[in-house]
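Exercise 7. Predict the joint structure of the components listed below.
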Amino acid sequence: MRDPWIDFVRQHYGEIPPPAPDLEERIVAQVRSQPRLRRPWWLGWLGLGMVIPVGWGVWRSHPPLLLAQSVSDPDLAAFVVEAWTVEDPVEESLWLEF
Amino acid sequence: MVVSLSAPNPGADSDAALALAAAQGDPQGFRQLYQRHQQRVRAILYPLCGADVLDDLVQETFVRAWKGLPRFRRDAQFSTWLYRIAWNVGLDYQRHCRRQRAQQQVLQQTKATEHRDPDVTSLHYQTLVQQGLASLSPQHRVVLVLHDLEEWSQKDIAASIGIPVGTVKSRLFYARAHMRRFLEQAGVHL
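Solution:
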């Protein structure tokens, strides 16, 4: 059974206004006036052929810097001490016996 | 009745063949595509923009399609692709209107002039229905209009505006409830 509210909305929605008589011609005229730019197939290869030597040159002249900072020796020592410090006294004693 | 998105005239060239011809620069193929699909493009755009700018947005949709045809994937359905463009054109217009804070005004201005029914009660109901639709979000409004008024299937709506079928169902449920509440509060008793 159809929802009476939907029937009501359908009844009073009205009709979609028809297109202007010249709309179709306007659209066709506009697309005619816009010739598509066709990219030649070899253009991509040309671009790639230029990018490779330029990229290689940049790489050679400016080698990438190391992004990760080195860890200084005192920091590393502090990390090792902290990581190996045992909080549990029982385990600590076992560790000492060992 | 459920409307299918496939080509309405099976004896004529398929959409895919026409799209291929149009992609190669044939305006006549594109003209046929326009004639086949303009009505459904209007059905998508009308609830988003009203009557005043409808023709302009239809034109924008087809011009965008023309420009995009070389990138159109042949394994896709042309109608779905075109309706997605129409949906995006409608949303762009909505954003434009929102920026100008004129959306409600535009939607309500479409009334009285386009309905020829002299019955005052009928005009009142038409205005109420349009106001109720305008109070929905564009996403809910389009789903309600396409499904309940234009009789598109949920699957076609989902494909055309790029959402899952489950989302179509939930938006439909919400939009119907909203319209019923709106009309009841406006004094409509069925």
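Discussion. Chain A has a mean pLDDT of 76.
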